[in-house]
Amino acid sequence: MECDRRSAIELLPFILSDGGIYRGKELYFTTTDIALVEHFRQAAAKTFNYRGYIVRRSNRSYVVKIKGEKYVRCLTEVVSGILCKPRCTVTLPQDLYEDLDLARWFIKVLASCDGGVSVSLGRKGIYKFLVRKVFITAKDVDLRAQIINILRALRFNPHDDKEKHVYISAKNDIIRYAREIRFLDGVKITRNSKRFYGLEKNHLLDMVVQSYDDPRVLTPLFNPPHLYLTKPTWPGLKPGSGRCFIRFKMERGKTPWSATDARL
Length: 264
Hints:
Layout: H1 5-17, E1 19-22, E2 26-31, H2 34-48, E3 53-56, E4 62-67, H3 69-78, H4 95-98, H5 100-114, E5 115-124, E6 127-137, H6 141-153, E7 159-160, E8 165-168, H7 171-180, H8 201-211, H9 219-222, E9 226-230, E10 245-249, E11 260-263
Antiparallel strand pairs: 1-2, 2-4, 3-4, 5-6, 6-8, 7-8, 9-10, 10-11
């Protein structure tokens, strides 16, 4: 099997983030996002002319498996240290510093799999303000340093929070990221974010960019309906009946209707 170097590098960030190599004979990629499954399989087909097969786990995650030493050899020709991930640091190929289109793809995939958009409320005295970030998660210090160098090669101003994140936060950087890199199409925010779970990452990114001109764009994300589980209150219903209730409570002035009970 011929191994195209560029295609192998395009597949690499999937393996570095949510993937790995099993016993030197199998590539795998794990995610709960079906959009990421399809993006990985497209990259695999481009590299190996083989999409692998999907296993659905009991926890509802997907595992794409590509069995065969020839596929593993293809990746190790590009990055030899990937065989011992995560026990040792992977040295990224020099191509990522020389081919800026390849570098943008690499960052796009890493941020789609192990990163995203962060929006939080900061406070200075009595004043509140929005803190906007685009971030990539990487526990390995040396890998974070390499990601920072790639972002600098792309003329961004990245930061390391010294825990496990590389991020950009400057207005011009985030606007450029939205214009030049973005996230993989259809990829959604996971349950790790209670506030933004289920939103497409690109949609939130666009909202963040719009919020520089109109911060109210993000207001609905910070004032959603509050859901409370309540005990049955209707006549004839007893605990353990298999029915539950959700009470919707909206902030005063945000909705024309008041709190109510709804049966599921």
